[in-house]
Amino acid sequence: xxxxxxxAQGNHRATYREVLADxxxxxxxxxxAVSITADALRITTFSVLIFSATGSALxxxxxxxxxxxxxxxxxxxxxxLADRLPPRALIAGGYTLTCAAALLLALVRMPVAASLGVVxxxxxxxxxxxxxxxxxxxxxxxxxAYVLGRSLNNIAGAGAQLFGLxxxxxxxxxxxxxxxxxxSAVLHLGCALAIRIRLPRLQPAESGGTPGRAEGGSGAVxxxxxxxxxxLRGRTxxxxxxxxxxxxAFVAGAEGLIVAYAGERRFAPGWYAVLMGCLPVGMLVGDLxxxxxxxxxxxxxxxxxxxxxxxxxxxxxxxxxGVGVSACLLLLxxxxxAYGLGLQRPFLDALPPGGQGQAFGxxxxxxxxxxxxxxxxxxSVAAVIGTGGAIALAGGAAVLAAGWLLTxxxxxxxxxxxxxxxx
Length: 423
Hints:
2 domains, Growth Hormone, Chain: A
């Protein structure tokens, strides 16, 4: 495991107040929370708009997920730009691009295929400006403050997503889907203006990126593919990425079956929404407890037990429990999501200084893609063995992932591990 910090500071515990005192992080944190709200509003509304136009549940589902999978290709093909272009221009440009797409969908009546294409194109660019923002956070916060900054982003992200979904339903009911898309555009425009006005103009070298000219066309693609290859060939970085991808993908596979499980068990109407809310509530509580109460090295020692906690309760669905037990199992599983906090400093320490933006973009896009693939895979399993068994199988897969980590992730060791070893 990579070294986490200087020995004198390795177990220093930061506070959320200390993190929020940094003006640059505060700006990035606030704009990101608003943009997640706007994204949730846009995604939900776009799905409603497609269903109202076509009556097709399949196309509506495609509309809901079309913004996720293209992100992986964007990260592979364009990810190097996150380290090579000035971060203010990238982040503000990303919010402006998303605003323009939402406005186009709101104002122009396009064929369904064209509107799906617009959303997919924006998704290709998303890892670039998300990677630039994450790199800037890593430069603004040091040591345990960086970990708590990631914790705050997780908490705000989950809360903003829930709020955006609720807001989307209310605005669509009151104003209609196209007006709701226009509201999403306005929120993204506000984020772009805030970044453009309040974030200093930094060159890549000042923000931890790679100085040099911005390559266009095939040059940027070659650099991005080369950088992604270097990251994934490095055993330490590759393992730490997989450790952050796989358990979340397995639990997402179980989460995608909750509505079907509630239907099969004939729970009263509305209970599926309660069950769906248990995982994010557990995530919020887990992040607060692990981030605020535990010291850095303790968090790193608890990575494997917390992954096991994310998976073990789901195995209980093999017994097809009722509403109360199901809710408790999902809440416990959500607590285990806090395992990611114990991997943040090792992951950052393992990255090459000039490739942090691309690495963060690849980490986020890979996670989003696998969270889309997980429900499809375990949904196929549910068609054979039932939803309870499929949820239990997803939990068992998460436990196996914890066992895999145990073979290479020793408890917080001061012994350095080479960053770019291959294997």
